[in-house]
Amino acid sequence: MSHTLRVVFAGTPGFAAAALAGIHAAGFPVPLVLTQPDRPAGRGMKLQASAVKRFAEEHGLAVAQPPSLRRTGKFPAEATAAIEQLKATPHDVMVVAAYGLLLPQEVLDIAPHGCINIHASLLPRWRGAAPIHRAIEAGDAQTGITLMQMDAGLDTGAMISEARTPIHPDDTTATLHDRLAQAGATLIVDALVELERSGKLHNVPQPADGATYAAKIDKHEATLDWRRPAAALARQVRAFDPFPGGVATLDGTALKIWAAAPVEMRTDATPGTIVEVAPDGVAVACGEGVLRLTQLQKPGGKRLPAREFLAGSTLAAGQRFQLPDEQ
C-alpha cells in the first residue's frame, strides 16, 4: 500500500533502524534520513556507519549526518546547513528515535505536524538516554514504548500512544531492546496511518508525578559490588548485557559476568567470597543472599557457560572477588 504522508526520519542505532524499516515497509515516502556521523568502532577502530545509515543506503534513501543541529553549538556551519536542508525538503512530519542529538525548537517547528519521538519506556518513568537498561536494573515489572510529541525538554512532551510489555525474569537489555524495537515500529506506523487519515494525533500531557531519569550507562558501573543483595546484582548483570557486562575482579584479573541468578543458600562468608564451584555455576556470597554466576568470560576470551569456563580456569571455593574500593 502506498501513502502520501512524507516522513523525515532521525535516528541512529538498531532500535531506530527497526522503526525506519517499519515506516519504509508500510509505504510512507521518506525524503530524508538524519543520523549521527560515522564513528570509529571494533578492534581496528575503523569508521562505521550507524544501523540507520546502513538501512537508508541499502534502500536508496537520502542521508544527512550533521554533527549538531544547534546553530549556537560547536558546529554552527554544519548545523545551519542541515537546518536549511530540512527546510528545503518537503515533508509532513518528523519521526525521531534514539537519534542522540538535541533538537532545538527551530527544528521541532519545521514539519507541519512537528516531531514524534519513539521512546523506550512508559513515560514519565525513565526519561533520558538508557531507559531499557535502567528499567531492568531497577526491577520494574513492565516497560514499553511511548510515542510523544516532542518539545524542547528532555522527553517531556505530550504522549500520543503507548505499548506495554512485561519484563521477564530472564530478560536482558538485548532481548528487551529487540522486543521494544519491534513494538516501536508497529506503534509509529499505526500513528502515521492515523495522522494521514485524520490530519491530527490526539495527545495528553505527561504527568509530572513519577518522573525518573535514565542516565547513560557508564563503564565504571560495570563493577559488581558484592555488598549489594544477590537479587540486585542479578538485575545489574541482565541490564548490562550486551554493554558493558558485569565485571568481577579476582587476583587482579577482571572477569566479565554475563549471566547470574540469586540462589537459596545460607552462608556467613564475607561478600565476594566464592562459596561453591560447580558445573552449573560459581556461587558467590553477597551482602544479602548468594549469586550463582552461570556465564563468564576471561580477558580476550569468549563468553562461556560456567561448565566450559571452569574447564580452563582454577576458581575454587574460598577465593574472594575484590570489592570496588579494593581495586
Automatic annotation (TrEMBL):
The keyword Protein biosynthesis applies. It catalyses: L-methionyl-tRNA(fMet) + (6R)-10-formyltetrahydrofolate = N-formyl-L-methionyl-tRNA(fMet) + (6S)-5,6,7,8-tetrahydrofolate + H(+). Pfam families: Formyl_trans_C (PF02911), Formyl_trans_N (PF00551). Residues 7-192 form the Formyl transferase N-terminal domain. The keyword Transferase applies. (6S)-5,6,7,8-tetrahydrofolate binds at residues 121-124. HAMAP family: Formyl_trans (MF_00182). Belongs to the Fmt family. Attaches a formyl group to the free amino group of methionyl-tRNA(fMet). The formyl group appears to play a dual role in the initiator identity of N-formylmethionyl-tRNA by promoting its recognition by IF2 and preventing the misappropriation of this tRNA by the elongation apparatus. This is Methionyl-tRNA formyltransferase. It comes from Paraburkholderia megapolitana.
